Amino acid sequence: MKHILKCHICKKYTMKEECTCGNKTVMAKPLKYSPDDKYGSYRRKAKLIEYVRGGFV
User: pLDDT tier at 1 (50, 70, 90 boundaries)?
Assistant: First the structure.
């Protein structure tokens, strides 16, 4: 089953791995959310470290 993909550069939707503008596409729908996420705290800590390294915080 194929999913709809989106190009972040030109904002077009497609079902191909590469957009007509030549950039890669990513999944258009968000990941599933679960309140019982066992690894959510680890993911948030990793994202915070990434933001600090990038100078966003």
Answer: low
Question: How many angstroms separate the CA atoms of 20 and 36, rounded?
Answer: 39
Quote the tokens at residue 53: 């390294």
**Residue 57: pLDDT band with limits 50, 70, 90:** low
Residue 34 phi/psi, 5° resolution?
-135, 130
The single-letter DSSP state of residue 46 is H
Contact 36, 47 (CB under 8 A): no
Stated pTM of the model: 0.50
Beta strands 26-27 and 5-6 are antiparallel
3-state secondary structure of 40: helix
The DSSP letter of residue 36 is: T
